[in-house]
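Hello forum,

I keep getting stuck at the same step: I have a sequence, I want structure tokens, and every attempt I make locally crashes halfway through. Rather than fight my setup again tonight, could one of you with a working pipeline run this one for me? It's a single chain of 264 residues.
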Amino acid sequence: MTVEQLTITGEMPGIKAVQVQRGTVDHRNAYSQWNLCDYTGDDALRVLDARLVFCQQMGIDLDRLVMPRQTHTTHVAVIDQAYLDADIDQQERRLNEVDALVTALPGICIGVNTADCVPIALADPVAGIIGIAHAGWRGTVGRIAERTVEAMCRLGAKPEQIHATMGASICADCFEVGDEVPEAFTQAGFDMSDIMHRNADTGKAHIDLGRANRQVLMAAGVPATHITLPAACSRCQSDRYFSARRLGINSGRTFTAIIKHQDL
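Reply #2:
Ran it on my machine without issues. Output:
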């Protein structure tokens, strides 16, 4: 398993943001090779095996790996000691219909699964608070990144100290949308000149989700110099990352995570 480290601006002692690459691709199998998501139709044992391999590489136990059951909401869950002390059923309820996580606990790896949506890893290295968010176009319009920053600040973070990095996600050229999508962004107050263009041949709108989420983060008080945009397109590089637009909804998901290895 290739677990690539994502670039976060600034000094991040003890904090690591990572993304899992697909690995060996079998074009007959939209879940090949490493898929950690358990609710998109993959075999449960394959998913468990992928999680175990990931945890081994990260140096953590399986019960220290936390990911939500995402449904394109703007709900944020706090992973605290009460969550760790809860039974499995209670933990699952706390993670259901959640699209972002924050924690101040060391040794807890929080992550999200994406297949074209934008994964955003956030860290305040001064306060020792980390977060992770899944931002599709609906979550972006709903400003889930801002909700995540607010949840981190309730734990003691400060917006001006937060650094954010975005993992592989669909690029603007690949993200062709119907007119209802730019209308939603316009109604939500986004600067459309920064995030949208129209294809000269088709007239279709294209949205840059990375730049849209940068607008959200900056509005939440995160400095522009602390924000790293996606370095790769999931659809253009679907042999490296999972892409629902290439593979269909019934396919694997790319896992993006962040962990604080020590109590800062």
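The mean pLDDT is 96. If your local run keeps crashing, start a new thread with the error log.
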